[in-house]
Design goal:
Function: Involved in the maturation of [NiFe] hydrogenases. Required for nickel insertion into the metal center of the hydrogenase.
Strand content: 25-35%
Protein name: Hydrogenase maturation factor HypA
Number of domains: 1
Helix content: 10-25%
Structural class: alpha+beta
Shape: elongated
CATH architecture: 2-Layer Sandwich
CATH class: Alpha Beta
Order of helices and strands: HEHEEEEE
Number of strands: 6
Family: Belongs to the HypA/HybF family.
Largest sheet: 3 strands, mixed
Keywords: Metal-binding, Nickel, Zinc
Distance between the termini: 39 Å
Low-confidence stretches: none
Pfam family, one: HypA
Length: 121
């Protein structure tokens, strides 16, 4: 499940940006070539975010398509299928481009996270 590695990096980036604030939501754009599974990505994010300011944050995942150019019929199209074939003629003799990004588009913050280590119990 490669989603875990991706989410660990995202959570670290979010944690750096949070500056002690609680993270309420994050929007991530992932290219179709990464072949992420929405549910698996959400679970991986939840695991990676546990114990960080991003814990319990709402995650919005946007899958961006790749461009598919068919060498058989010459058509150009977009696809979110990592194993793309030409949607016009069905050929698998295609060149794909794009769809390889991983972008943290936005992060929303709430109040500061209290530092419980400073307060005696």
């Amino acid at each position: 499940m490669h989603e875990i590695g991706m989410c660990e990096g995202l959570v670290e980036l979010i944690r750096e940006r949070a500056g002690g604030r609680r993270v309420t939501s994050a929007r991530v754009r992932v290219g179709a070539r990464h072949a992420v599974v929405d549910d698996a990505f959400g679970q991986a994010f939840t695991m990676a975010a546990a114990g960080t300011p991003a814990q319990d944050a709402e995650l919005e995942l946007v899958i961006t398509p790749m461009t598919v150019r068919c060498d058989t019929c010459g058509s150009n199209s977009e696809s979110v299928d990592a194993l793309a074939v030409c949607p016009v003629c069905g050929a698998d003799d295609v060149d794909v481009s794009g769809g390889d990004e991983l972008v943290l588009e936005s992060v929303s913050f709430g109040e500061e996270v209290p530092d419980v280590s400073r307060h005696p119990r």
